[in-house]
Amino acid sequence: MIIAIGSLYNVVMECPVCKEPMLVIEYEGIELDLCDACHGVWLDEGELELLLGDHEMTHGFLTAGNPAAAKKEESRPCPICDAVMGKAVTGGKTPVVYDYCPHEHGLWFDRGELLSILEQGSSDGAAAAVVQWLRHVFPDSSTPQTKQETLNP
């Protein structure tokens, strides 16, 4: 869907999980695409690094997990290019399986996953304000849903 705003055009992305239109919310100049139905979050390429404040640390954290854990997850289309997204697993105390676009458009996080990554992935607490803000935006999204809850929110 394309919405005309003056002479500008904004593309409203569909959630890769429930196909609902996603909301665009800005935090500190970073646009997050949020699904109000399933509480998933899309971050364009490079936005997670901006939220965490450290590119090298973020890349290491995002690729530190065991890839075998991601094989059980259902594949999803990228909301930008419709390519089948890959799966990866973070490091940390509570590894998170997340989706990534093979064409580097961005990352998809199911309900509660971005909060978990932000809490675990920032060693100096740089993401604490973002975590607080996300909890305000989605007050009940701190715990991930089961697969059935995601399909029937």
Low-confidence stretches: 1-9, 145-153
Mean pLDDT, all residues: 80
Instruction: State the share of residues found in helices, binned by percent.
Output: 10-25%
Sketch the topology as an H/E string, one letter per element: EEEEEHHEEEHHH
Please give the order of strands in the largest beta sheet: 3-4-5-8-7-6
Number of helices: 5
Query: How many structural units, i.e. domains?
Result: 1
From the N-terminal CA to the C-terminal CA, the straight-line distance is 23 Å
Strand content: 15-25%
Describe the sheet with the most strands. Answer: 6 strands, antiparallel
Net shape = globular
- How many distinct beta strands? 8
Structural class: alpha+beta
Overall description:
The strands form 2 sheets. A 6-stranded antiparallel beta sheet has the order 3-4-5-8-7-6. The chain has one domain (2-151). It has 153 residues and is of the alpha+beta class. It has 5 helices and 8 strands; from the N terminus they run βββββααβββααα.
